[in-house]
Every structure is written in C-alpha cells, then in structure tokens.
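Re: your question about Dehydrogenase/reductase SDR family member 12

S., sorry for the slow reply, the queue was backed up all week. Below is exactly what I fed in.
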Amino acid sequence: MHPGWADTEGVRTSLPGFAEAMAARMRTPAEGADTIVWLALEDASKLEPGAFYLDRVPQAKHLALSGTKYDAPRAAQLVDKLLGLAGLGGADGGAGGGEGAPEASAARAGATGGGAGG
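Result:
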C-alpha cells in the first residue's frame, strides 16, 4: 500500500525542498494512515491478495514505460537467494536440503503473493 505523500516529520527532514514546494498538496498524517488502517480492519475476503492499494483502491503495480514488470523466474531466484542467506535452504545452503530447487522457489514465490510489489 502507499500512503500518498503526507506532511510528516520524515518527509520534512529527508526531502525539505519537496515538502516546502508541495506543502499545500500533501496529505495530513491521518489521511496518509487511512488506507493502512482500513486494510488492517477490512475483511480479508473483500481484499485483492497481493494488490498495491492507494486510497483504498488497488492500483497498477507497474507504471507504463518505467521498465518495471513482474518476472516470476527472477522473483523465485530472489526468494531462493534470500532463503539461502538466511540459512533456511535455498541456493546458499542452510537447513532444508533440497528445498532450494527452482520448483520450490517458484512455489514459495507463488505462495507469497507472486506479483505483489510495485
């Protein structure tokens, strides 16, 4: 989910020029928190799994012409690598024996929402 640009201490500190230029258009912290609170309280059966929410509505995960896209094999490679680094199986060894196989990685990527992210 994305809170939108909210007038918070973090934005004012890390992006002071942006915060000043956009002050009239930024959301209040409460407005920025609205969607995450709504998602936490909404019945999960009414939500789209893996969706990228803004203002309580699923949004496109990739912008046109941005060069981003979901790539299942690369996502599986990343999951496999991270599991290995964490010692939970995967390409770098660790517990789990053969769980680092590409098929297992693809299954894990699918079980975690697949195309989630944005």
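The first strand starts at residue 52 and ends at 54. The longest helix spans residues 72-85.

Happy to talk it through on Thursday.
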